[in-house]
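SAMPLE LOG
Freezer: B-3
Tube label: C17
Construct: single chain, 291 aa
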Amino acid sequence: MMRLIPFNCIICIVLCSCVIPDSNHVEPEYHLLTDKSVDHNGSLHLPSISFHVREVSIPPYLDDHRIVRRQSGTSINYLENHRWGEPISEGISRVVGLNLSTLLGSLAYSSYPSRSRLGSLYEVEISIIRFEKTEDSYVNISAVIEIFHHNNLQVQFKINEQIPASGKKSSIEIFEMSEGLSVVSSKIAKSIHQLPLSQCLQAEVEDFEVNEMPLDKLLTLLNLELGIDASKYPKRMEIIRLSSDFDSNNVPLISLKVVDKSLFEIIKLVNQKSSTVLKFSSSGIVFHEIP
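STRUCTURE (predicted):
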């Protein structure tokens, strides 16, 4: 005769046969880039300047939540347990914006994904080529930088930097990557600071007055206000200048009196009175005739 097994014994047998092994899952560690720039002497300060850091372009292999390491020239490795706490392109934009704000001494800035501030003088575009730690214990950062004024390109340059990575911990690696962005930010700030438009923003003019003066002679005076003396710096005397095809006979004589204005504000006033078109570049501020 068949013997019946108690129901509670059956439950015990089923449970004992379904033992779940210990999990091997490791919770990823999330990282953020951080601002690091410090300008102790204020040598690059332009408090009246405004700027926007545009969306950063990155190569597809970096567009991943996992941190990348380069094993060789042609191979990379993704770290499953070390990931970005934000999209890396947004992190770069955020950190460069913070660094530039410190270096330039300006709070009038924005960075992607925020929209550009209305009337921003400069927009910074960063195209990352490489940004990762290599097997020889360096953080390599390579990028093309473009600086725009109202969508007109002012300067373009390429950056290649190697930052020594002193340890194997990922936290140290992120620290060194942030240091690389600090170096990049310093070069961007210096480029912005050297632009003629920036120099004119810095030059404060206490009193400036001219009466019925031709435009070409007036621009010579403005160059002197910028500290460019033709007798000492003949190659730099025309930072503020007329275009090569400009016909001064088409412009009336100009009278102007201003007090406590920046040189940039005076240039804008001259631009209005002469009914001309202003174009800015890394080599100068040029007055053109209206087409």
